[in-house]
């Protein structure tokens, strides 16, 4: 006879198992993880008292958001205009922000609270941009505004995240420690608008702060700046008040970096491009004999190799145009050792040699001797001996390999150990460079018939690549023809500099002196220059915009 009790328990256990499976099954039905990243900042739900309140007499303002938020850098970012001696206090209360006014308010005055970038959501840090709160202690609210656009003076591109501010002329000083209270930031199109302004005369500035900035105080060393030279009278809504930002040249010479390298060379980086630089070891003077000095193309960096490294310390003088700029001290320990190994770079691009250039070899050390018998040239695996090894006449780091290179040939240039000898008897290791000659058909020519707007002025016509790097510059002072030839086919852009001081380069502006950067004009449409092609185009330079 079946055991009814066991049967009952089996059914009961089965029911428990089914129930647990259902529970776990339901528990596993979760919301899918991931999804699009939250890019929206907190949204304002309410303001108490309401924004734009007239006859304001409250001591506290409450702003409620739709999500939790953080306050960051509020001492840098938050401001009230007009200024108050006792700065309002900001307190975070869950999804509410309380602003406690701790100072008395002037009668019949419009106040603007600007929060800058101080409010951001908790999870992703999305910032509430250009949030402001406006109230008036009288029956009227100041309603004037000023708007415009900020562009980069050299690239001619709009600049986002730039702080635009105005200062009453009676306290106009951008070179101070007090940040502005009336400001805004530009959007992605470079546009800005300052609202709720009172009638008055102001100076207008723009600052693009370097990474790590954010205090809205102009740091000449690191920040970019723009300004309107003449004060602006705001007695109506003003539009198209545009600014160009630029990086000022440092007013005084300074060494940015200096070090005695582990190979025994000395590196010095300047904050300016020097015109006629000179380096001299002044103490001990004997160490100056036989030194090697190499400046970069822009004369803003120097590298020095000394033949005599027996010193404990040396004094190195930096001069420009015959004027002593600074004397630097370098010390070394008598037991210091240096690693000297010659590395050799070249002018190949993607394993191809420009057919209009010779193969250039650049050493990391001043070369004192070269042995062509330790250099082997193979053309399609066949040894060739009719090449020349030629030393550069002015650059002690460069040598050229001259040879009648041929298309559709594979080349192997083998530099045997000791092919180059540098100071301190440093030598190169075995090195092989493999390349082919680029076909001349891959290159292009463009002839421009240039018409200038004013023959008493000077201009610089520049060819730029798609990244706006300068490829070639042509100074122009009259209607003439310029030829851009023997350059790789591709897309190029034209830029014209209105060279006011006729020095052949673009010059930046200066806030204290009150002059703007030299103007530029872009033919922004990319020119697609085809390979093995020659074309001729007109270039009519327009007068500079006022």
UniProtKB/TrEMBL annotation:
- Could you list the residue ranges that cross the membrane? none
* InterPro entries, per the entry: Carb-bd-like_fold, SbsA_Ig
Show the GO MF annotations: carbohydrate binding
Gene3D superfamilies in the record: Carboxypeptidase-like, regulatory domain (2.60.40.1120)
Q: Which domain of life is it from?
A: Bacteria
All residue ranges annotated as the SbsA Ig-like domain in the record? 38-137
Q: Which UniProt keywords apply?
A: Signal
User: What is the protein name stated in its UniProt record?
Assistant: Ig-like domain-containing protein
- Record organism: Pedobacter suwonensis
What is the organism lineage in this UniProt record? Bacteria, Pseudomonadati, Bacteroidota, Sphingobacteriia, Sphingobacteriales
